[in-house]
Protein: G-protein coupled receptors family 1 profile domain-containing protein
Organism: Magallana gigas
Amino acid sequence: LAPMIYLGILIVIGVPGNLTVLFVYLLKFDSSTYRTFIVALALIDLVGSAVCMPFEIIEMNFQYTFYAVGACKFFRFNNTFVALMSIFVLLALSADRYRRVCRPLKPQMSVFMARVLCGVAALLAILFSWPILFLLGTRHVSLPNNVTGYDCSTSDKYKKTFYPLVHAAILFITFVVSIVSLIVIYSLIGRKIFKHVQFRNTFRTTKSSSISSGKTSSTKLPSEGKETVVLVNVNKVTSSTDARKQSNGTESKKPIAKQNENNDGKSKNKITKIAFAICLAFILSYLPHLIITVWTAVKGGFIAPPGPIVSAVLPIVTRSIFLNNIVNPFIYGFLDRRFKKIVLICVCKK
């Protein structure tokens, strides 16, 4: 009962949460690579919340009386497809962040290319998932009192072959390589940001020291009937005519350009933080599932003696990956002020 309640809560949170993300980013945000990847992830998470989780509840409810072979194949395929699609889209998002932060002067990813990569991610997810349509089905399970149960698992036809093991190994290697790639990419991004912050702090310190050590003298210039005091360095004397040109000409545009540059930098850092948080959430939600899967395969049976606590907790931990389908809307709410503001406005109107 506990695993069903757990999944039911996730469905109640995940479906409206991901619908909200789709509504806000599709209708309120301008087209960009960031929006493209966020919308793709929201669609994936919506499928996970509205399709995959309900199937898990049904499968647990009919654990040894699951006779629908077609439904078993389809939903198991869908579960794997959603997980693979998520990580492939995250890799594409991370590659975009890497180029924008670590290679800002190189050609950047376009919106069209981001959409193409989402399509490639879907094709790769199908390529890695399609064997499930053949390998899985209903498996006969011997129960007490000479009763035969039917479970949605590896089909009896392939149970004693090496095909399920090969496919499981391919999926395992794919996920491990992808997770390691994400860790490497964000390590490089973090290193670049750290160096940039260090350089900026050093530059500010040097600039502050040079200003404080220089000698200055004050000069009064007329400016629309008011006295304006201009500090002039003794070593570089500027004529009153040049000072007026600078105050009325190109120099007045520099603060605006600098402000725009700062805004662009803040936006880039915000998006990078969100992308990192999404990837971290995926890794943390998938690790328990991965550990239990490997542990079960190594032991070749139960990882703990059967009991009421194990029966309640283990199915929840095994399905920890479903947390990834509900957590992203919360990440956007905490880290994206614009998303949060739009959601609050919509809620307050109601």
Notes: The domain at 2-202+263-349 is CATH 1.20.1070.10 (Rhopdopsin 7-helix transmembrane proteins). The chain has one domain: 2-202+263-349. The radius of gyration is 29 Å.
